[in-house]
Amino acid sequence: MVGREQSRRDDNGRGSGAGSDSVIRLEPIGASNRKAVLALELSQDQQDLLADNASSLKEAARDDDARPRAVVAGDHVVGFLMYDASEGDDEALIYRFMIDRRSQGRGYGRAALSALLEEIRALAHVRDVLVCYMPENEGARRLYHSAGFVDEGADEDGEMIARLRFVRQKHGS
Ligand SMILES: CC(C)(COP(=O)(O)OP(=O)(O)OC[C@H]1O[C@@H](n2cnc3c(N)ncnc32)[C@H](O)[C@@H]1OP(=O)(O)O)[C@@H](O)C(=O)NCCC(=O)NCCS
Description:
By secondary structure, the chain is an alpha+beta fold. It contains five helices and seven strands; from the N terminus they run H-E-H-H-E-E-E-H-E-H-E-E. The chain has one domain: Gcn5-related N-acetyltransferase (GNAT) (Aminopeptidase, 3-Layer(aba) Sandwich). Strand 2 (about 65-75) and strand 3 (about 75-85) form a beta hairpin. Coenzyme A (COA) binds near residues 106, 109, 133, 139 and 146.
């Protein structure tokens, strides 16, 4: 039987090489990876789902709370994400998340989300993580739900908001 994953890979002519257990890391944006982040692409039908990376990096330059990251697999930048986890706010917000169209369907999105949640969990002031995505974005919905996010409903712009609550050990109990 040809499953969704198989047909997704065939449709895009990709899927060999990396596996879903691939090690990926998140890197702050700097001289070594900025060009590669700007060269990342989405497929035509995905381009309306989020702002392009050039706009996101410009936005990040004006916003001290923005934490932009390159998603790196081996020595290749395969994706980009951005979140906000301001001190004094116990909610972090993931508001950009993309994997280059040529690297999708290989487990990088799931691995990047897992690394990101680990990074955010290390911030002791954060209790909840929110993500936003377009309601018609089935790929994002499945990815976020598989990580434990639960939909809360659409915001005023029509974007779906989903929430994940960290379970933290209480010291001394
Ligand atoms: C969503 C996105 C980040 C997933 O990245 P990816 O590397 O292709 O994802 P993975 O290979 O790690 O797949 C993880 C899970 O995501 C879901 N998923 C990803 N693409 C999907 C698709 N086209 N259709 C349905 N589910 C999909 C599945 O649940 C998948 O797990 P499964 O294959 O075990 O069912 C990527 O498709 C992307 O960049 N899309 C465009 C931008 C976007 O939508 N960003 C998120 C909202 S801002």
